[in-house]
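One thing: can you check what follows?
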Amino acid sequence: MSDIFAFPSLQEGLPVALMEALAIGIPCVVSKIRGNVDLIKEGKNGELFNLDSVQSFRLKFEKVFNILNKYNYISDMEKYSISNIYQQMMKIYKSETLQK
């Protein structure tokens, strides 16, 4: 059980753990790095903090904690569902096949 997902990663490609947290409706406090910045809409589904500042993490965490009920956690995650990703990949494969 958790009310907030904290994700202080130094590097991510495809942050699956973050996607899972968003998909189940937990607001997130995450490092401002590639991958995370693509998923988090500040003030909507979480907050981004600067890795070089413990104070930045603390302030963002406190902000989320104090307004938990105002976040719209799940809204954009449908575009990352397995069925949508599969359809997008099939379009790419088909277009590459047709070009050859």
Remarks:
- The chain has four helices and three strands.
- The chain has a mean pLDDT of 85.
- Strands lie at 5-7, 28-31, 46-49.
